[in-house]
Design a protein that fits this description.
276 residues, mainly alpha, globular, Tetracycline Repressor, domain 2
Length: 276
């Protein structure tokens, strides 16, 4: 009689435990879905109102939740924006993945990464501006360490793609290692891209100095830097604008043709915008 009773008791305990696990799992899924709802609503508000128009109360209201519920997921507006930036990183990664998966030589891949970054900034300006914003010191420090870590983890695959191209260049003899780590050779390209896009989005700054073709300058300086590192094959004349235009056009058509169709357009070297 004792054994059946023990089995029954253990069976009941097992059922209760299983139910608790399922309930917990269902609760976690509901929380994740609600968090994604808040992130998507913020993204939409970002496109409509811009960064300065983001308000926690308005985001919560648009999702039919109390503001306190939103703060249960995100301790601050900085955390919310960091989460949005993390979710949007996938879009940027898709541009870089096309370059990484291509059959281009290593030097052309490095230039193509610059083109990919420029196209991403032009095709998704609200995404790019958000990324710039959350990486400013005041926002970065205000966000929780957990949200910062999530953002860094999401962006890491992009860095690994670039690192692999540099490593391939070293292994193939396209680039001398000089005893440095691979990413030490790409930080300059990244810095120039970030800096130029900051100037482009600061309306009026480039106009004040009559600098009308920032993308041409960015890509030309990228070629000059690659030449300075003796990255093979060295470009004979980095100041040959026609050759640069042909190179960019070839890269755009080969890697981003479908993304450049219609209203998005492709990269223009003669203005701050895109071709029609």
């Amino acid at each position: 009689m004792a054994l059946p009773m023990l089995f029954t008791l253990n069976g009941s305990k097992y059922k209760r435990t299983t139910t608790m696990i399922k309930t917990k799992s269902g609760r976690e899924q509901a929380l994740a879905e609600r968090e994604q709802l808040f992130i998507e609503s913020t993204r939409q508000q970002l496109c409509k109102e811009g960064l300065l128009g983001i308000q926690m109360a308005a985001i919560a209201r648009s999702c039919n939740f109390a503001t306190g519920t939103l703060y249960h997921h995100f301790a601050s507006k900085e955390d919310l924006l960091m989460a949005v930036g993390t979710s949007l990183t996938t879009t940027r990664r898709e541009y870089f993945q096309r370059v990484a998966d291509s059959d281009l030589n290593t030097r052309d891949k490095m230039l193509a990464f610059v083109v990919a970054y420029a196209l991403f900034a032009q095709h998704h300006p609200e995404h790019f501006r958000l990324e710039q914003y959350i990486m400013t010191e005041v926002v970065w420090q205000a966000a929780s360490s957990n949200r910062r870590e999530q953002f860094l983890e999401a962006t890491q695959p992009i860095g690994r793609m670039v690192e692999q191209v540099v490593t391939d260049a070293m292994n193939k003899g396209d680039l001398d290692t000089h005893g440095l780590a691979p990413l030490a050779f790409s930080i300059g390209q990244w810095s120039m891209s970030m800096g130029m896009h900051t100037l482009i989005h600061a309306e009026g700054v480039l106009d004040m100095y009559a600098l009308k073709d920032p993308y041409r300058m960015l890509l030309r300086n990228s070629q000059l830097q690659l030449n300075a590192m003796q990255w093979q094959p060295v470009v004979e004349d980095p100041f040959d604008d026609k050759a640069l235009e042909e190179k960019v056009s070839t890269l755009c058509n080969a890697l981003f043709g479908d993304l450049c169709d219609g209203k998005k357009g492709c990269l223009s070297l003669d203005s701050n915008g895109l071709t029609d």
